[in-house]
Write a structure and sequence with these properties.
The chain has about 280 residues and is an alpha/beta fold. Helices cover about 40% and strands about 20% of the residues. The protein is globular, with a radius of gyration of 19 Å. The relative contact order is 0.18.
Length: about 280
């Protein structure tokens, strides 16, 4: 296992800087021997490996298929690879980006069995800001215009009249949720907009020194999906493994590492609510 883990990490770092698209469509009648599992860069490459490599290895061992991790330098590159380049056979992406992928033929295998995800606005614990209206004239760090947290918070702020121009609220793009949190924590911005699940998992000192002042509407949790070119037999194998993980000792260990209880089936219209957010994105 250790040798395989080191190999996967090394390959992951190589893929991050631009390897050829190993996830290109296989022949329909041939069972794949290798698949690329694409992860939206919601965390740094190192943190993605730390968090998700056990899941990748579990699926690889259970299917007998060489499944390898890949991410991208930024959201725009990841979206382009998903939408236009047939790169990712298996996909872990944000709900609004899954909606876009679904329009390209990606199909959900299962989703995380947790309550709806929300974005939150946080400020330093000693900040005088305690309401949305008090954000007026201040600055807020985000993970950029393509991020679900940004779109959900913009949707939340619109009725408060804080979306007119930068004089109302200055938006500051950062590379990640952690970077956005640290921006507010260190006083570089007055607030930060991040996804609640990320905020819940940050280091205790950081979390306890920040205060939530508002949250967004909820959306269905993250799905795992497969590309339109992946054969249905392989897709069903992956789906069955995910849905049964919580019944298997090793599967439960992986789920505990992810802080997820289990996976559940996805309804045909579960992600329709994301249409209005997804349509705000200009595909690279």
């Amino acid at each position: 296992m250790r040798t395989k883990t080191i190999y996967n990490i090394a390959l992951f770092c190589f893929l991050c800087i631009g390897a050829s698209p190993l996830g290109a469509a296989p022949e329909a009648a041939t069972a794949p021997s290798r698949l690329v599992f694409g992860f939206l860069p919601i965390l740094s490459s190192e943190r993605l490996v730390e968090r998700f490599l056990p899941l990748v290895n579990y699926l690889s061992e259970r299917t007998g298929i060489d499944i390898r991790m890949e991410t991208a330098a930024d959201f725009a590159t990841f979206i382009a690879r998903t939408q236009k380049r047939n790169r990712y056979a298996i996909l872990f992406t944000a709900p609004h980006l899954f909606y876009l992928a679904q329009q390209r033929g990606y199909r959900a295998l299962a989703r995380v069995d947790l309550e709806a995800m929300r974005a939150v606005i946080v400020v330093p614990r000693n900040s005088p800001i305690r309401s949305l209206q008090q954000l007026r004239g201040h600055s807020m760090a985000t993970t950029g215009p393509l991020a679900l947290s940004t779109l959900l918070i913009r949707e939340r702020l619109a009725p408060a009249g804080l979306m007119n121009d930068d004089a109302e609220l200055r938006w500051v793009d950062t590379p990640s949720h952690i970077a956005a949190l640290l921006s507010a924590y260190r006083g570089n911005t007055d607030a930060a907009a991040v996804m609640q699940p990320v905020f819940r998992r940050v280091k205790t000192d950081l979390r306890h020194n920040m205060r939530v002042i508002a949250s967004s509407a909820g959306v269905p949790h993250i799905p795992l999906a497969v590309a339109p070119w992946l054969d249905e037999v392989t897709a069903q194998r992956l789906r069955d493994i995910l849905l049964q993980m919580h019944r298997d000792a090793e599967g439960r260990q992986v789920l505990a590492h992810l802080d997820w209880p289990s996976f559940v089936p996805v309804g045909a219209h579960d992600y329709d609510r994301l249409r209005s957010l997804a349509e705000q994105i200009e595909v690279p």
